[in-house]
Amino acid sequence: MNILVIGSGGREHALAWQCAKDDNVENVYIAPGNAGTALEPKCQNVVLTSTDASEHSAVIEFCQNNDIDMVIVGPEAPLVTGIVDACRDAGIKAWGPTAYCAQLEGSKTFAKEFMEQNNIPTAAYQGFTDATAAKAYVDEQGAPIVIKADGLAAGKGVIVAETIEQAHEAIDDMLADNKFGDAGSRVVIEQFLQGEEASFICMIDGDNILPMATSQDHKRAFEGDTGPNTGGMGAYSPAPVVTKDVHDKVMSQVIQPVVDAMKDAGHPYTGFLYAGLMIDKAGDPYVIEFNCRFGDPETQPILMRLQSSMVDLVAQGLAGQLPSEAKWDNRPALGIVVASKGYPETSSKGDVIAGLPELDTTNDNAVKVFHAGTAFSNDNENEVLTNGGRVLCVTALANNISEAQQAALAVTAAISFDGAQYRRDIGHHAIARENAW
Ligand code: AMP
Ligand code: GLY
């Protein structure tokens, strides 16, 4: 079998690595991939000029010319612009939601209205295009309050305002100063939810739901969950906050209603679905956001634990025959993101990365360095450089979360590049629970 993975992040490295493990797979192509995907056995990066979003013909042409049996789409942008629809029209099997379903991530307004119509628990909200009206609403509601750019903003278009002044500033940034471009020409203002967050990711084939192992992400840039929101600075799996009872509630109150409503609307949901949840003290889940894809960095620890074949699961998903359970390593996994200088506000490129461990191809490695923003140097093909944003995700499997954190930190500490930044407290919620036992 030949597989094409679309994307260039740590999530795509983990997906490609899992696919390559399958004995039935001959080639995994990653478009455009990164230095890490280029080094994996059976894997090669390909440059398709039009993977960027609205133009999908290069993907279709590549699939037709290279006997591609399945396409796995990593990031949201091509999903939102209809890459899965375009592939299907061309008779190519592509795993992901259609453009209609991807609106759950592509438009916060669509997602909020969808949740309201289908009684899916979420924060109360209102949408605005006018800054004065938005500020008046904030004044009436009080702080803390959450201001979100409507469109795609790579996880960064959300401001949790502690004060009314911060909320006003965020509204001006988005609506008046256009800081998030078109994504911020409309804002959603939301009630601030309290509790502990968890990421709940499923595979859905239109009908059947296969929940992935649970996980928890760390969105803030700095230790102690402070600083600006990022795409995610680290994650671990499973998330102890998702007890059996919480799991059942999420399935019945969140995931099943999405599947039912999309089917009723004539647009069955296919692909990964990611519900970002706030779990309150009573164990009730509220949806913070939907993503129409696997999470990044959640994919990295989740797929470290997957013992079923990713390729079989996707093939079953494409055939409408997803099983209800996959096989997981009982051990937890934890991934630490190493980001480039200035992330998330700015992004630096071209710094030499030292101390990367040798690639371990034995498949039973307990620590794996997934690459994201990396590239080979033009001058020295053995040199790996940073390529902006989140650079690496150092992921470890161990007997408990504390040990996984220590193992990941030990490898992370040996890696260096100019301005490298990472959090030493990934997994702190779960570690506090472990220490309390
Ligand atoms: P989002 O991109 O919508 O997932 O938001 C990014 C992060 O902002 C979330 O992971 C939360 O940490 C925080 N956040 C978003 N919405 C809310 C909310 N209504 N209440 C509290 N925190 C929120
Ligand atoms: N880690 C959060 C996301 O993938 O959106």
UniProtKB/TrEMBL annotation:
Domain of life: Bacteria
EC assignment: 6.3.4.13
Segments forming a coiled coil: none
Cofactor: Mg(2+); Mn(2+)
Family note: Belongs to the GARS family.
Keyword Calcium assigned: no
Presence of keyword Oxidoreductase: no
Protein name: Phosphoribosylamine--glycine ligase
Catalytic activity: 5-phospho-beta-D-ribosylamine + glycine + ATP = N(1)-(5-phospho-beta-D-ribosyl)glycinamide + ADP + phosphate + H(+)
PROSITE patterns (alphabetical): ATP_GRASP, GARS
HAMAP family in the cross-refs: GARS
ATP-grasp domain boundaries: 112-319
Organism: Psychrobacter piscatorii
InterPro entries in UniProt: ATP-grasp, ATP_grasp_subdomain_1, PreATP-grasp_dom_sf, PRibGlycinamid_synth_ATP-grasp, PRibGlycinamide_synth, PRibGlycinamide_synth_C-dom, PRibGlycinamide_synth_C_sf, PRibGlycinamide_synth_CS
